[in-house]
Amino acid sequence: MSGNGPSVAIACQGGGSHSAFTAGALQRLLPAVDAEYDFVGVSGTSGGALCAVTAWYGLLSEGPEYAGDLLEDVWCDVAATTPPSFLLNESLVWRRRLANAMVPVADVSPYATPGRSGHRWYLSLLDRHIEFDVFDALADDAPPHVTVGTVNVNSGVFKTFSDDAITAKTVLASAAYPLLYKAVELNGHWHWDGLFSQNPPIREFLTSDRPKPDEIWVIQIEPQTRDGRPTSLAEITDRRQELSGNLSLNQELFFVRKVNEWVEKGYLPDEFKHVEIRRLALNEKLTAASKRDRDPRFIEDLMEQGRTEADAFLERLPE
Q: Nearest CA to 245 among 11, 45, 23, 10?
């Protein structure tokens, strides 16, 4: 936002509780970007959407330090700290571990359990920390801009929402994993978790009428590579989910690389330019089941890893 350095956009991949890593990384990245770069945008999907919207709101409200504190508050609130929430958390995590190991576990539709209040819990979380009714005042033609991704269940079309078009229900829709949350109605259509769509939205950084970044920093929480061959049912299931989670991300980045190629060949108008892609990755080997884990120690450990990796990432940047 200072305009002293290259323009930067940050893309936050989603992945349930693993997105606490993203929150920790943003706590380090936002002050650096605010001081040394021209911050033009942030995007996210699912847990990444929660991080992106929180960071954008905090940054424009009171600055990068407040945004970091707000990310801390939000994820402390996500953590299961009461006895009932802790017991529910353990139940959900272990059910998923058993299912991933191909142990017969009955999944129940969220529509068949009227007592479940996932929507109410998530909307209450957002309401405690983010004032969506001020987004109109915060959003204007000047960057940074924020974008979150969902999928339209009816049409099968990817859908993104930006700036003052984002509401609490939009963020909920981006996180609405079908086996845990009912679909969310937006503009007369039903929407699900953005993990089925652009995870996270990236091409919008290049195709909108807004200022285009010189660099896109991707916070990636799904492992791109794994050593060895998955052989157990749990290992196969985990790797399959990791590859599925990265499918959309790699398609988005392929689009950026293709635009770079066309720019170098002179095929595109002057408004397009080469965009550098930089990745900041969660390197710990985690299971897919732990995406549901809201244990406070697990959340804080992931946030600390995010801060550590972001510090190393910033050290590696060219001067």
A: 45
The 10s digit of each residue's pLDDT in 225-255 is: 888 898 877 778 778 777 877 888 999 999 9
The model's pTM is: 0.91
Locate all alpha helices (DSSP H) within 175-219, ordered by sequence.
Answer: 204-207
Q: Name the one residue in this structure whose structure tokens are 């424009």.
A: 60
Residue 193: both structure tokens together: 């978790």
Distance of CA 53 to the CA centre of its chain: 9
Record the tokens describing residue 137, joined without a space: 């005042």
Measuring CA to CA, how many Å separate 270 from each of 7, 83, 262, 309? 17, 59, 11, 35
Tell the burial category of 114 from Cβ atoms under 10 Å away from its Cβ (0-12, 13-18, 19+): exposed
The burial of 106, by beta-carbon neighbours within 10 Å (0-12 exposed, 13-18 middle, 19 or more buried), is given as exposed
Question: Is the distance from CB of 130 to CB of 168 less than 8 angstroms?
Answer: yes
Rg (CA), the chain: 19
Q: Where are the alpha helices (DSSP H) in the chain?
A: 20-36, 47-62, 64-78, 83-100, 118-129, 135-138, 168-174, 204-207, 233-265, 296-316
Report the 10 Å Cβ neighbour count for 44: 33
Q: Are 7 and 41 a contacting pair, CB within 8 Å?
A: no
pLDDT greater than 80 at residue 79: yes
Q: Could you read off the pLDDT of 1-40 as tens digits, one per residue?
A: 555 789 999 999 998 899 999 999 999 999 999 999 999 9
Do 37 and 4 meet the contact criterion of CB atoms below 8 Å apart? yes
Residues 213 and 42: their CA atoms lie apart, in Å, by 11
